[in-house]
Amino acid sequence: MVLTTTGKNAVRDLLNTNKDFGQLGTSTTAPLPSDTGLISGVSASQQALTSSTADKTLVLSYELNSTTANGNTYAEFENTINSGTNFNRVTFAGIQKTADLEIQIQTTIFVE
Amino acid sequence: MADPVLGTIRDTQQLKDVRSDVDPAFRFFNETLKVKEHSTRVLTRSVSGNTLIWGNTQKSWGSPYLWGSSIYTSFILSNPGAGVLGSSQLGSSLSTFAVIGVINPNGIWYEALRTDTFKDSTNTTATWDTTNFRWTFAGSDQIQTSVISWNENITITTATLYIESDQITNGSNLTYYLSADDGSNWEEVNLSVQHTFTNTGKKLKLKITASGSAQIDVDDSDENSYPLEVRVNQ
Question: Quick check: B33 and A3 CB within 8 A?
Answer without folding.
Answer: yes
